Amino acid sequence: MRLFRLFALMDHFRSRLQPTTARDLGLLLGVSVRTVYRDIADLQAMGAPIRGEGGIGYVMERGYFMPSLRFDTDELEAIALGMRLVAERGGSQLAEAAGRVSAKIASSIGDTARETMIKTPLEAGPSSTGFSPEDRARHDRLRVAIRDRQRLRIDYVSRNGQASSRLARPLGLTAFDESWLLTIWCEQAGDFRHLRVDLIRTAEPTGETFRDEAGKRFADALQRERGAP
């Protein structure tokens, strides 16, 4: 597991004062030099002060430590299961982020808690309909559009084969067992709509953005669905 590799790298750097080359690290971990470069880049992005110099190798600055976080067993299992669900059913970027989050948390807790988190007997299986690479890429694009408030032109085919094209404000994504649902504000209908992500054929940015407008937000759609006053 990649998480164990990151732990192994940190432990290796803590125990050595002299630089280690990427080639030697690759031999130690049984991975390619390219994988070592990627893992070290991720550790550096997490805040680990690992320095590298061409032809010399990598070394971690003296005196570095991660402050301890405290979680009970239920909290650790909730974190582990949540990250595994995201990794299994999220877009590629979100799945990679889940791995980074797991590594950050695991490196910030004690050995006993770390073992509890890594070895939790809770696992996330695939959805009943699967989640293809195309679904993951589409999920990534939609998440970016939601975050950046990009107005989209969406071509959609419903489960009964009816095709439609909508000018939409993408508002939020909701995970269900069979599929993710994209909640939009449909400009033509002047109302909320929920589209299955796997049935979206294209979702192209129009080059326009939209404002956060009361009555047309994701929270408003959820409030309506729940029947809240």
End-to-end Cα distance, whole Å, is 47 Å
Looking at CATH, which topology of the largest domain would you report?
Answer: SH3 type barrels
The tally of beta strands, per DSSP, is: 7
Please tell me the CATH architecture of the largest domain by its name.
Roll
Strand arrangement in the largest pleated sheet: 6-5-4-3-7
What's the CATH C level of the largest domain? Mainly Beta
Strand content: 15-25%
Arithmetic mean pLDDT: 86
Level of helix content?
Answer: 40-55%
Tally of discrete structural domains:
3
Order of SSEs: HHHEEHHHHEEEEEH
Q: Show unreliable segments.
A: none
Radius of gyration: 22 Å
Shape: elongated
Major sheet description: 5 strands, antiparallel
Total number of helices? 8
Structural class by sheet pairing and helices: alpha+beta
Report on this structure:
The chain has 229 residues and is an alpha+beta fold. The protein folds into three domains: 2-60, Arc Repressor Mutant, subunit A, CATH 1.10.10; 73-118, no CATH class; 133-225, SH3 type barrels. It has eight helices and seven strands. A hairpin with a 5-residue loop joins strand 3 (150-157) and strand 4 (163-175). The protein is elongated, with a radius of gyration of 22 Å. The termini are far apart. The mean pLDDT is 86.
